[in-house]
Amino acid sequence: MDDALTPETDSLPLLLLGSASPGRRDTLERAGLEFDVLPADLDEEAILARAGDLEPVEQVLLLAREKASAVTAASEGGYVVLGCDSMLEIDGEVVGKPHTAEAAIERWRSLRGRTGVLHSGHWIVDDRDAEDEGTGATFGATASCEITFAQLSDEEIEAYVATGEPLEVAGGFTIDGRGGPFVESVTGDPHAVVGLSLPLLRRLLAEIGIGVHELWRED
Ligand SMILES: Nc1nc2c(ncn2[C@@H]2O[C@H](COP(=O)(O)OP(=O)(O)OP(=O)(O)O)[C@@H](O)[C@H]2O)c(=O)[nH]1
C-alpha cells in the first residue's frame, strides 16, 4: 500500500477511492469529483474462500467492504472511503478477470450471443472526524446490470484478445473501450459496468448527509 494518506485539513478531497481501477478513477474524474486514491492490496480469493458459499451479489459486496476497511485502516483518517468490486455472473457462474489470452478466448466463446449480469459492489466507510459531522457509518449496496453480448466471430474474439484489454477487466470485456462494439445492450446504470455506479454513489453519500455536488472539484 502507498504511504498513508490524510485529507487536506481545511479542504476537499473528502472522498478516498480505495481502488487501483483506472475505470473507476476515470468515472469519478469525468463526473468532476475531487478525490484521493489508495488501492487496497488484498487476497480476494482467500477472502471468498473463508466466506464460504455466497451469492454473486454477496461476493462483490464482501470484497468491496474488505477493500474499504483495509484502505480506511491504511489512511490517517478523515475521509469518506469508497471500496468497490465487480464480477460477471453468467448461468449462475461468477467470473472475474481472465488474466490470460487463452482464458479470455475461452470466455468470449462462451459469452457471445448470450446475456449475463455484471454486479458491482460498493462500500462506504464514513471515517470523518466528529467535528466534520462524521457518523462512523459503514454500509454498502450493489448495482447490477444485464449485459447482452454480440455474436462475435472467432476472428473478432482473437483480435480483441490480442489487444490485451480483456485480460484485466471483470468478465473480460469493457463497454467504454475496444470492447464497445461487442456489447449489444446494457440495462441499468452503465457506470456500474465500468465498476462504479454514480447514481448509487449519490445515494450512499446522501445517507451520511453529503450531496455529491459538494464533492465537485473547482475546475
Ligand atoms: N473501463 C472499464 N473497466 C471495466 C469494465 N468492466 C470491468 N472493468 C474493470 O474491471 C475491474 C474489475 O476488477 P475489480 O477486482 O473489481 O477491481 P480492480 O481493477 O482489481 O481494482 P481494485 O478496486 O483495486 O480491486 C475494475 O478495474 C473495473 O473498472 C468496463 O466496461 N470498462
UniProtKB/TrEMBL annotation:
<feature type="active site" description="Proton acceptor">
    <location>
        <position position="85"/>
    </location>
</feature>
<dbReference type="InterPro" id="IPR003697">
    <property type="entry name" value="Maf-like"/>
</dbReference>
<dbReference type="GO" id="GO:0047429">
    <property type="term" value="F:nucleoside triphosphate diphosphatase activity"/>
</dbReference>
<keyword id="KW-0963">Cytoplasm</keyword>
<keyword id="KW-0378">Hydrolase</keyword>
<dbReference type="GO" id="GO:0009117">
    <property type="term" value="P:nucleotide metabolic process"/>
</dbReference>
<dbReference type="Pfam" id="PF02545">
    <property type="entry name" value="Maf"/>
</dbReference>
<dbReference type="GO" id="GO:0005737">
    <property type="term" value="C:cytoplasm"/>
</dbReference>
<protein>
    <recommendedName>
        <fullName>Nucleoside triphosphate pyrophosphatase</fullName>
        <ecNumber>3.6.1.9</ecNumber>
    </recommendedName>
</protein>
<keyword id="KW-0546">Nucleotide metabolism</keyword>
<comment type="function">
    <text>Nucleoside triphosphate pyrophosphatase. May have a dual role in cell division arrest and in preventing the incorporation of modified nucleotides into cellular nucleic acids.</text>
</comment>
<comment type="similarity">
    <text>Belongs to the Maf family.</text>
</comment>
<dbReference type="InterPro" id="IPR029001">
    <property type="entry name" value="ITPase-like_fam"/>
</dbReference>
